[in-house]
Each structure stands twice: as C-alpha cells, then as structure tokens.
Write a structure and sequence with these properties.
By secondary structure, the chain is of the alpha/beta class. The chain has two domains: 2-219, Rossmann fold, CATH 3.40.50; 245-273 and 313-499, UDP-N-acetylmuramoyl-L-alanine:D-glutamate ligase (3-Layer(aba) Sandwich). The chain has 19 helices and 18 strands. The strands form two sheets. The chain has an eleven-stranded mixed beta sheet. It has a seven-stranded parallel beta sheet with strand order 4-3-2-5-6-7-8, with helices on both faces. Strand 2, helix 3 and strand 3 (76-81) form a beta-alpha-beta unit. Helix 3 (57-71) runs parallel beside helix 4 (89-100) and helix 13 packs parallel to helix 14 (376-383). The protein starts with a strand and ends in an 8-residue tail after the last helix. The structure holds ligand NAX and potassium ion (K). Ligand NAX is lined by residues 10, 13, 24, 27-28, 31, 54-59, 61, 88, 128-134, 136, 140, 157-158, 183. Keywords: ATP-binding, Isomerase, Lyase, Metal-binding, Multifunctional enzyme, NAD, NADP, Nucleotide-binding, Potassium. Pfam families: Carb_kinase, YjeF_N. Its cofactor is Mg(2+); K(+).
C-alpha cells in the first residue's frame, strides 16, 4: 500500500470524485459511515459521544458522524470551534443536515465556557485533518490542551488535530488520541516514533477511493502490509533438501549474553535456513548445544568474547553479526576482518553497530546489500544526532544510497531505507515487542532469509513483516506486558502461514 502526502491525498479525493462521478459530499458521507461503523462496533449502546469539530472538511466529517450516530440512537453532543468565518462547503451542508436531524451545536472558543464531559464520554476529534497549516495557536491550541487534559478516550478522525501529515510537529500542541481512523492510506506523520504519543493505534479505513490513482501515482513511501509481504514471499519447493536453503552463520554471544545468540539462532532456524552454524565464545558451547540442538557450534579461541573469524567465510550463504558480542578491541578486530573478507551481504545489529559507530572508517567496507538494524539511539550514534524522526528518515535514505546498504530504523512502524526506490514503513508489530531480545530475533530471521537466497530488500521487507506479525499473533495468547522474544520465535510458523498461497501447496 502506498503512503501519500496530504497534497496527494487531496488529489486522490479529487481524482476519485472526477472519475467515479461521486460527489465530494457523498465521499464525506462514506468516510463518516466508515468511522461510525468503527465507533458502533467498539463502544456499547450506553456510551455518549462528544464530537469536537473544526470548520473545514475534517469538521464536516465530524458533523456527519454525529448525525449517523444520532440516527442509530446514540447520545451525541457536538461542539464547533468558532473562528467567525464560514465553514467549508461540505461542512456547511452537514451543518444543515445535522440541524434537520435535530442535533444542537454548541460553540467552543475564546470567552466561552468549556463543555462538561462525563467520565464515560468518548471524545471524537474532528478539529483539523490534512488541511492543517502550521502549528495550532490561540483558541485551537486551547481546545487541544483542554481535551488532552481531560483524561477522556479520544478518537481522532484522519489525523490527531495539530499533527502535520508530512512534517515534524514537535513542540506544537497536538491531540493525544487513543485511536486514529484515517482514510485510504496511512500518512508519514502517523508512522514515526515521535508521533506515537499522539496517534495511538492507527486504523486505515477503506472509503472506496480510486484504486487506479493509487496504482499510477508514484509515492516516496510504501506500507509493508500483507499483500506486499506476500508479493516477496517464495514458498518452499517440494523437492527441497537442506542445501537448497543455504548455510547461515551467526557471529553472536559473549559471557553473560549467550541468550542473544540463542534467540538469534532459534529465529534463524524457524526462519527457514537449511543449515546454521553459530560462532560464539567457548563459554557458549553448553548453552547453544542444549538450547538449539539443530545448530552447529564453532568455538572461538576465547572463553568469553569473539576474537577470531571462522575459516572460509565463503562457504556460508549469509552471515549475521552482532547480538551479544560486546565492543572490545578484540571483537572490533574480528568485525573488521569480517568486513574485509565477506563477499556477501551481512546483517549487522546491536554491538556490531556500536563498533561501527566508534569506528566510522569501517562503514565503507560494508559489502553491498548489507542490512543494518539500528534503533534510534544506535542510529544517532552511527550517523549523528537528529532533531526529529523526519530527519532520521531523510538521513537513512541518504546513507542507504551512499553505502549501498539497507537500513532498518527500528520503531513501532520500522522504517526500511533501500539504496534505490521508495522507503517502507512496516505495518505489523505491537508494544509487547519492546523488550530486550526482539532485535536478536529479527537478526536471526534476516540472516535466515538472506541464506535462502532472498535479495536483501526482499529479505528486509519480509523479515520485518513476519517479525511483527509473529508478535501480533503471540500477543493474542499473552499480553503486551508478558510477551517474550521467544514467543515471537514460537509464532514465526503461524506468521509464515499467513503468506501461503491458497490452496497450498
Ligand atoms: N473529499 C475530500 O477531500 C475528503 C476529505 N475528508 C476530510 O477532509 C479533511 C481535509 O479537509 P480540509 O482540507 O478542509 O482541511 P481541514 O478540515 O483539515 O482543515 C482546514 C481548516 O482548518 C483551518 N486551519 C488550518 N490550519 C490551521 C491552524 N494552524 N490553526 C487554525 N486553523 C487552521 C483552516 O482555516 C480550515 O478552516 C481530511 O483530513 C478528511 O478528514 C474526508 O471527508 C474524506 C473525503
Ligand atoms: K482530527
């Protein structure tokens, strides 16, 4: 699914109106119907709704939702943020329709008393959407602060009001929503880490916008959804043998950090690698051989850290390096030797990235197509401090092109920068995965997919989607608090099965 800017979204609306003869007001009605269905499915008959509307089309959506909820017998109150000007054409039409339905409007704004919101009231934020120009000030900022301070659940329509769809909103007042219901496709501003506190859970509602426009319009970013993941997935061949799916090598583990190697190894095997060798310090021998009997063990000369490279790296089809390895001088030497001798893309995570950050001269040695998996702090250590996640995305794309590598900037919607083509945001995953060890699982999975011959971009897109999907499946049986990285490993099979063609085989 493509991710469009606010301007492209407006064009998408206009194109749909022109090509399908649907009127703008009817498209608004469709959007309102989709939101109303979502609200009715989520909240019981006793829940009162209070809609806060601006005077643009986002506010028009709010008025239409109020009318539809009222028609279904729900209790609704509507407040309009007055600015002394006429509303948009579709806002005014919906104002008339709402009056006909007998739902009163109250004004909020300077000098007016704030409405009372009971404890059970669900607030619907339809103040500003994609038409926002600059940070909110004055009365608009006051309403946002009033609603955020009230402690009621807020459902934002299209965008949390005050959030810019295309640029950083850092510092400006923005609604803190529990859920955001957006139309057609996600917007960049909804997907970055810095927006997470405002967007809550994002739901993309289909309102029947033109598929032809989406297909023919180039986009800077794409959303890695199930359809995209399926398009990159290659089912296993019936006559396969273990050699068909590659020999993965993991350089992982250290004294006190053998768990990282275990999780990466388990994920690598569950990810489909034909053979796996783990090169770890000697202290890891009993640990790995008992917890991951399917993997072969290649001991380092050192008891506690990685100091040497295995002989003949060319016999491995993919190499993952980093989980639990530490950043000692000896291990730095081993990583340098690995970069100098590897002739295939590498997966680099955790301490391998910290070593690169301390030794930026090593970056140009990265084999083409290598995959780096930093979280934002590791990213800043590698490429310098950034003021916003929008800036990080820009740097990630520039560095991916300069280094001819793939950079996975980890987050709720992990960003995938590729050397050419669009950037990608992942659609799967949840807050339960924010736990030490999740990254080790991703490293193992990436290494497994490279070992099986996936091109680096395909391996990256597929791995982030599968990793998040396994988390989404696992959390159904767990909770966000109790989810463990090993639960992700256990559900990788279920995640793969989502991608199987039907019927299979
Ligand atoms: N046909 C369409 O275009 C559709 C649009 N839809 C809705 O329409 C929205 C976009 O509507 P609009 O383009 O009218 O824009 P908005 O309704 O998002 O905002 C425009 C209004 O906000 C005011 N405003 C903008 N920036 C401000 C600021 N910094 N401080 C104070 N006031 C500010 C403007 O003066 C104007 O009144 C979407 O987000 C979506 O909710 C949906 O109904 C689906 C169909
Ligand atoms: K809104």
């Amino acid at each position: 699914m493509k991710i469009f800017s606010a301007a492209q979204t407006r064009d998408w609306d206009a194109y749909s109106i022109a090509q399908t003869s649907i009127r703008s007001i009817d498209l608004m009605e469709r959007a309102a119907e989709a939101c109303t269905r979502w609200l009715l499915a989520r909240y019981g008959a006793d829940t009162p709704f209070h809609l806060f509307c601006g005077k643009g089309n986002n506010g028009g959506d709010g008025l239409a939702i109020a009318r539809l909820l009222h028609a279904r017998g729900r209790r609704v109150a509507v407040s309009v943020l007055e600015n002394g000007k006429d509303g948009s054409f579709d806002f005014e039409e919906n104002r008339r329709r709402l009056a006909q339905a007998g739902v009163p409007l109250q004004a909020v704004g300077p000098g007016l008393a704030w409405p009372l919101l009971s404890a059970e009231t669900v607030v619907v934020d339809a103040l500003f959407g994609t038409g926002l120009k600059g940070p909110l000030q004055g009365a608009a900022a006051d309403v946002v602060r009033f609603l955020n301070g009230h402690g009621r659940a807020i459902i934002s329509i299209d965008l949390p009001s005050g959030l810019d769809a295309d640029a950083s909103s850092a510092g400006g007042p923005v609604i803190r929503a529990a859920h955001t219901l957006t139309f057609g496709a996600p917007k960049t501003g909804q997907l970055l880490q810095e927006s997470g506190a405002f967007v809550g859970l994002l739901h993309v509602l289909d309102i029947g916008l033109s598929p032809a426009f989406a297909a023919q319009t180039p986009a800077d970013y794409e959303f890695v959804d199930e359809a995209l993941a399926r398009s990159r997935f290659r089912p296993r061949q019936p006559f396969a043998h273990k050699g068909t799916y590659g020999h993965a090598l993991l350089l992982a583990g250290g004294y006190g950090k053998m768990g990282a190697a275990v999780m990466a190894a388990l994920a690598c095997l569950r990810g489909g690698a034909g053979l796996l060798t783990c090169h770890s310090p000697r202290c890891g021998y009993p640990v790995l051989q008992t917890t991951v009997p399917e993997a072969m063990f290649l001991p380092d000369d050192s008891e506690e850290q990685l100091t040497t490279l295995p002989a003949d790296l060319d016999r491995y089809t993919a190499i993952g390096i980093g989980p639990g390895i530490g950043t000692s001088t000896e291990t730095t030497g081993m990583l340098k030797a690995c970069l100098e001798s590897a002739r295939r893309p590498l997966v680099l995570d955790a301490d391998a990235l910290n070593i690169l950050a301390r030794n930026p001269g090593l970056l140009p040695l990265l084999p083409e197509g290598s995959i780096l998996t930093p979280h934002p702090k590791e990213f800043d250590r590698l490429f310098g401090a950034h003021a916003s996640d929008f800036d990080r995305v820009t740097t990630a794309r520039a560095q991916a092109a300069a280094l001819q590598c793939i950079i996975l900037l980890k987050g709720h919607h992990t960003f995938i920068a590729t050397p050419a083509g669009p950037g990608y945001f992942n659609s799967t995953g949840n807050a339960g995965m924010a736990k030490g060890g999740s990254g080790d699982v991703l490293t193992g999975l990436l290494t497994a997919l490279l070992a099986q011959g996936y091109a680096p971009t395909d391996a990256a897109l597929l791995a982030v989607w599968l990793h998040g999907k396994a988390g989404d499946i696992a959390v159904e049986k767990q909770s966000y608090e109790s989810l463990l990285p090993t639960d992700l490993v256990a559900q990788l099979g279920a995640a793969f099965r989502c991608l199987y063609p039907v019927p299979f085989p």
